[in-house]
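TL;DR need structure tokens for one chain.
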Amino acid sequence: MTAFLIAEVKVTDDAWVPDYAAKVHDIAARHGGRYLSRSGKIETLEGATTDETLIALIQFPDRASAHAFANDPDYAPFSKARQEGSVSHFRVIDDSDIAGAIPYLPRP
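>> reply
TL;DR here they are.
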């Protein structure tokens, strides 16, 4: 089942960003990951505005592939740099419909 990694990042020290931006997409690709977006153009349509400076959305073939990317030893130094220079939240969701009412989405 397709999985999506949602990275919500508030950059606090941008020293890590250029190297991360140049190299991490290749590591994600090794695990079947494909960036759908990596943008700082964040607009809140409803609810309280949050302070992320960028949100990335990466599609993976399944949850195991998303976890393999996040735990890849080659990714570890980039992850450490990001964690030290930002406040980040990584979330993984799948393409299921919890209500089961959308016919083109699988039920969980």
